[in-house]
Every structure is written in structure tokens, then in C-alpha cells.
Amino acid sequence: MDSLTQGPTPPASTLALALIISSQTPVLLLDSEIRIVAASTTFYRDFKIARRCTPREKLADLGGGEWKSPKLAKLLRAIAGGEPQIEAYEMKLVRPDEPDCLLVLGAHRLDYPIDEGEVLLVLTVTDVTASRLADQQKDELLREKQLLMKELQHRVANSLQIIASVLLQSARKVNSEEARRHLSDAHHRVMSVATLQRQLAITQESEVALRSYFSELCESISASMIPEHSQLSLEPDVDASIVDARTSVSLGLIVTELVINSLKHAFPGGGRSGRIAVTFRSQDSGWVLTVEDDGIGFPKDSTRIKPGLGTGIVEALAGQLDAEVDIADAHPGTRVTITHG
Questions:
Q1: 176 vs 54, 261, 328, CA distance in Å?
Q2: Which position among 44, 164, 219, 283 has the lowest Cβ density within 10 Å, counted as fewest Cβ atoms?
């Protein structure tokens, strides 16, 4: 008979075997030939193995043969021979009349042998089927949520464009110059939000690359608000900065608002050619966003100018970003600088 099943057992061996058998997690004690020396009660229970193994039964013969894995046996023999332990070997357990299980196995060589000179391995078995299924369902729900959010944002953007069209038509019909101006301002503002909304539908990542984001944003603004591109250009110049999604939303709103202000005030009448430049640069302590035009610039009597709604929106958004707003005469044109840090 085997040395582990006959004669008096040394106290250390008794303790080691007792720990294996009473373990609350599925665990096996194997010899160098991948035969079972001891197994925990939870191993038999969790994997529905009705009988206990006979002394030194091979792992491959356990149950209905579902534990027969040449690759696993090769890995275990390598560990017995001195190779590094395995911590997360995945194995699919296929059993008749039972659902398949996805297992994560860990194995290491026992530093303190029960019998002098004998090589023993400890093999732990974790059933991760339920957790992997839960993760898969969670991922599917997140994908579904993202698709729904993207569809919602597209619908919102379309609705905003419809509202903007109605406002523009109303502006053309009214006789009052003041009412026409207010309706036109409302049209531009709704169009700016619609443009940003479309960009948000495209950008779903937690981090946003500003170069592509601002390029697409400027293209959308130009397509929707600049009637003659050969006469007036909107040019982004952005470095490789990456910001979080929340910051990108505020920056996008600031850019659209400042561009609208330039289109409205820097090039009045629609007959003047020019250029609007959007520049963003990261610095060691923060970043600088600049929107500059080469339009008519400040009026001669600039003391009479009252800050409009657009200026208030930009200042509020900059305040949310802990940034400062500076408006200066660019000779020609106007330069608005947003500085953070």
C-alpha cells in the first residue's frame, strides 16, 4: 500500500491532509504523476463527483473523464519539475448531463513535502462561469445603453435643427428689425447646440482627443453657419491634447459660442471676407484656447459696448473649468483667450 495510507502518520502530514480535505474552496493535492493524494470535500460537491477517488487515482480518470486535459497535465508536470507556478489557467469543463463550466486553475509546488523527497502540487479550482456570464451581460447592457444614447443624441440634434429652421423662417417673415435680430440670434444658438450634440453622438469615449474633435466641430459649424466658404474660413489648429469628456463638452460649447460671436459681429453684412482661427495648446500647468478673427475689431467707442448673452455664456463655461477669459483687439479683428492654469 501507499506510504500515505499505512502505519502511523506524522503530525505534519496529518495536519496537511486535514487542511486540504476541509478546505472551503475546491483544492487538490497531486503528486508528480498528476495522481490525487487528497481532495477537499468542496471539490467533490461543487463538481458533482459522487465518489471519492481511490488512493493515487489519476486526475484524468476522475469522474467521467472530464478532467482529462493533456495541456493541463503537461503544465502540472512542468511545475513538478521546477517550472514557475500557474496562477490563472482557464479550462472549460465539459460534463454529460451538466452545463459546461469555465474554470480558473492555480497550481504551485508544495514547499514542505509530506513525505521526504516526494514532490507534491497544490491545485486550486475556481468556477468563474457565473461571474463571466454576469460580466458578459453587463457588457451587453452597456453596449445597448451606448447605442440608445447615441440614437437619442442623433434625434435631439435633428430636433434642434428643425427648431433652428423654424426660427430662421420666422425671422424672415417678421417686420420688426429687433424681433428679427432676436430670432436670428436664437437660430444661431440652437444651431450651435445641435452641432455640438452631433459631435457628442460621435464621441462616446471617456477621454477625447481634441484635434479630431475640434476639426469635426469646426467642419460642422462651417457647413451649417457659413454660406460662402471661399469668402470666410474657419480653421482649427489644435495640438495632441486629450481631455475628459466633461471638459470636452464645455470646450466645445465655448468654441461654438465664440465662433457665432465672430460670425455675427466681426463680419457684418455678409460681404466681407476673412478668417476665424481656433487654437488650443496644452502647457505644463494647464491649457490655452484662443478664438481669433480678422474682422472689423472693436468699435471706436468701445466703452459703450455691453456684454451680450454670448459673452455671459462663455464666462460661465470658463468659470466651470476654472479658466479666465481675456478679450483683446487683434489689429485687425478680435482675440478671445481662455486660459486654464
A1: 99, 22, 33
A2: 283
pLDDT digits (tens, 9 = 90+) for 44-101: 889 888 766 677 889 998 888 899 999 999 999 999 888 888 889 999 999 888 889 9
What value does the CA radius of gyration of the chain take, rounded to a whole number of Å?
Answer: 35
Cell (9 digits) for 310: 454670448
- CA 257 – CA 252 distance, rounded (Å): 9
pTM value is: 0.52
As a CATH number, domain 11-127 is 3.30.450.20
Q: Which cell is 190 given?
A: 440652437
Strand partners, 208: 243
- The owner of cell 503544465 is 75
* Helix extents (H) in the chain: 11-21, 41-46, 70-80, 129-173, 177-202, 210-225, 245-261, 309-320
Count of CA atoms in the C-beta half-sphere (13 A) of 104? 10
332 preceded by a cis bond (ω within 30 of 0)? yes
pLDDT tens digits for range 240-249: 999 988 898 8
